[in-house]
Amino acid sequence: MSPSGLRRPNDPPLLILVSLADGPKHGHALAKDIEDFAGVRLGPGALYGAITRLAERGLIEPFGSEDRRRPYRITPPGSAALAAALADMRRVTRAGLARLGLDPA
Amino acid sequence: MKPASLLRWYPRAWRERYGGELAALIQDDLDEGRPAWRLRLSVIGGGLRERGRQTRHATAASLTSPAWQNRWGTIVLAGLICGFLAGDLTSPLSAAPRGWQGVALDAVLAAVAVTGAVVLADGLLALPALVKFLRAGGGPKIRRRAGWAAAATVAAGGGLAGLVLVSGSHPPAQLNASWAYWAGVLVTGLAMAAAIGLWAAAATATARHLTLTPRVRAAQLVLGAVIPTAVTTMLITLALWWSATQDSLTMLVLAAANLVAVSAGTPGKIRRAVRRGRRLRSAASGR
């Protein structure tokens, strides 16, 4: 596991960080956004399990309050962890594509 | 389906922090027409995972905290020895013990009485604060831990009663050859260790909610230093008694080694507890 705890592209914590990278969102908006860009529908249990872990590790934090639908935003350590995880994935993706002859770079 | 009812699958602390948000999310998903059974499964799975995680954290914290590192060994050993001795203790109590066996049995009973008295005194000191806490509606905060401890106590008591009954109605040779008897002894011993540990954990958790006066806290510091010694002394007397009744040199050596360890460590522990208690009371009185 990477130091940030982010492992696979379809890991709920990674998907949440990607979703929050362009601004704060509450639970329902997060689930919808993740379904749109990744095609993964996270159930409420999986979504809030991942939110709990990320908040505990200080990678996201609550941001103000809208009734009971509390939005979250990514923190600077969260942005750094996401950038590191995406860089790892890009390296693997590039290697795979190059070996397949699909991307000479 | 009521979202709030599903939240019961989550631990209380988690619900207090995230429950409202999760209920809102479930309601939003229901309003969108997502299948209720799928939502239910997701929430139940998440709740169980959260409970498992919290239990793992609590267990790890208990096992690794400095205050408990020394106690777990004693607790497990106490439970196992009580289980193994359950059958044996009945015969000397009914027959008239003589010589060393009688002295050893008297020592066991005295050590049990002293340990019980010290533990009881420790509890009684906190009783007024506990009553105040319960009257203020604090019961639900400790109910689950106390419930588990009570359940373990019932299991241990049942096992112990069973062992005493069985050992009274079968000859020792038959019992020694029975794997079921020894399995029962082991399970009862582990249940007793679990009961002692769970009550200790429940007491520790309850103490965090209580508001104790500096005088009571100072007294409890001293009793807290005395209790492990009293429990160890009880184990030493049990080992001595076992050694006397079974002619076991191993148990005699074990008892002697523990006695040396207790004699070396206890006075220092009590002195430190008394000093901390004095500092506590001085700080509280502003001197």
Could you characterize what this model shows?
The complex is a heterodimer of chains A (105) and B (287). Chain A is mostly helical. Chain A has 4 helices and 2 strands, in the order αααββα. Chain A has helices at residues 12-20, 27-38, 44-56, 76-100, and strands spanning 60-62, 72-74. In chain A, strands 1-2 form a two-stranded antiparallel sheet. In chain A, helix 1 (12-20) crosses helix 2 (27-38). Chain A starts with 11 loop residues before the first helix and ends in a 5-residue tail after the last helix. By secondary structure, chain B is mainly α. Chain B has helices at 3-6, 12-31, 36-64, 66-94, 99-135, 139-169, 172-176, 179-209, 214-246, 249-285. In chain B, helix 5 packs antiparallel against helix 9 and helix 6 runs antiparallel to helix 8. The radius of gyration of chain B is 24 Å and the shape is flat. Residues 92-96 of chain B have low confidence and may be disordered. The interface between A and B is medium-sized, with 17 and 22 residues.
Helix vs. strand class of chain A: mainly alpha
List low-confidence stretches of chain B.
92-96
Q: What is the helix fraction of residues of chain B, given as a range?
A: over 70%
Main sheet of chain B?
none
Number of H- or I-type helical stretches of chain A? 4
Percent of sequence in beta strands of chain A: 5-15%
Question: Order of strands side by side in the largest beta sheet of chain A?
Answer: 1-2
Q: Helicity of chain A, in percent? A: 55-70%
